[in-house]
Amino acid sequence: MRFKPYWELTYKEKFFRTLWMTPFVILFHFIPEKLFAFFIPKSILVSIIWVIFIWQIVYTYKKWKRSY
């Protein structure tokens, strides 16, 4: 099985690849705030990442189930 770019995946594959990212999203919470070179607070950045992550899971799941 070869690695395929995200845009070549089916919605089922996109859904499972998104689920594989869950540990990384959780680990992102434990990165010290001093490592951020942004001007926005870490709490806002983490909130944005969680919203996008949850939206992506829901969206790919719905598209996957609709395609069958």
Give the structure's gist in a few sentences:
62% of the residues lie in helices and 0% in strands. The chain has 68 residues and is mostly helical.
Rg of Cα set: 15 Å
The tally of domains stands at: 1
Strand content: under 5%
Output the number of helix runs. 3
Assembly level: single chain
SSE class: mainly alpha
The total beta strand count reads 0
| Terminal-residue CA separation | 23 Å
Helix content: 55-70%
Shape: elongated
* Order of helical and strand elements: HHH
Low-confidence stretches: none
Keywords: Membrane, Transmembrane, Transmembrane helix
Transmembrane segments: 15-32, 38-61
Description:
The chain has about 70 residues and is an all-alpha fold. It has one domain (about 5-30, about 40-65). Helices cover about 60% and strands about 0% of the residues. The chain has helices at about 10-20, 20-30, 40-65. α1 packs antiparallel against α3. Keywords: Membrane, Transmembrane, Transmembrane helix.
